[in-house]
Amino acid sequence: MGMWRRDQTAAAKNCAAYKIPHCFATREELCASPEVDAVFITSPDAMHKDDTLLALKHGKAVLCEKPLSMNTAEAEEMAEAAKAAGLLFGVGQNFRFNHSLDWMREQVAAGSIGQPQLAHAQYSYPAATAPRKWITDPTLACGGPIADVGVHCIDALRYVLGEDVVSVSTLARKDDTSGKVEAVASLQMEMTGGVYANVTASARAPYRTLVEINGSDGVLVAENGLTVDRPVQLQLRRGGELIETVTVENGDGYTRMLDSFARALRGGETFAASGEDGVKNMRALDAAYKSWQSRLREQV
After folding, report:
1. What family is this protein classified in (predicted)?
2. Tens digits of per-residue pLDDT, 262-274?
3. Which of 91, 116, 147 is at the close of a domain?
């Protein structure tokens, strides 16, 4: 195991604290090392493409944090390079490995709520307390909360419903703290399967996540559905009555993601959050930001 960070002093502290044997001086040194089989890219968004292409050039499998890149064109280049090299390429959509979303996906597939019609996913957090100081810098970040956490909401709905985003209409606003990126946003999305969905994201509210699916015969509700640090209550309702309640823990979601990636690297399974699938999230993000500027509904 090894690490490289832009801040070498911080990297040295991390390597010492977590007993990481290799603290590389450069990213090239990390990617070239025979001790490294796969690279997990957690750099700022603007570095994802170059970091991914470098790792692939050295024959390393790549798991890249979300959002996958700064735009769809970059994401497509990354996915095509991985395919050409025959290397595993995944995106860190860790909530696909949460027990809460697995349960909702199973309920939808089983027809427990009939035909899905409406969906909503929300992710709010106070960005002022976030450790990543670059998330309001448009030269490093793909965007504000739309790209930072809204992409999790988009991916969660795509995963649970098994549908894709067709078009997006965006309302968003900046504030003095967010600078050139948005601080609060609401996305209205048309999805395949006749589903209308809303994604709401805020960097100016107390932490909260929510996932809801309304169908022709029932409703699924997951308060804290994208949350990992507390129990998550899942509900199935029909006709206003509570039919089933399930409580799950999502604390092992990141571990499940990394373990799945490792098994996929060994050929044991298919990784649920492929880089090629991540390109679809980037297309939705591009449409969302284009809509914010054009004030029109934009096709994905």
Report:
1. Belongs to the Gfo/Idh/MocA family.
2. 999 999 899 999 9
3. 91
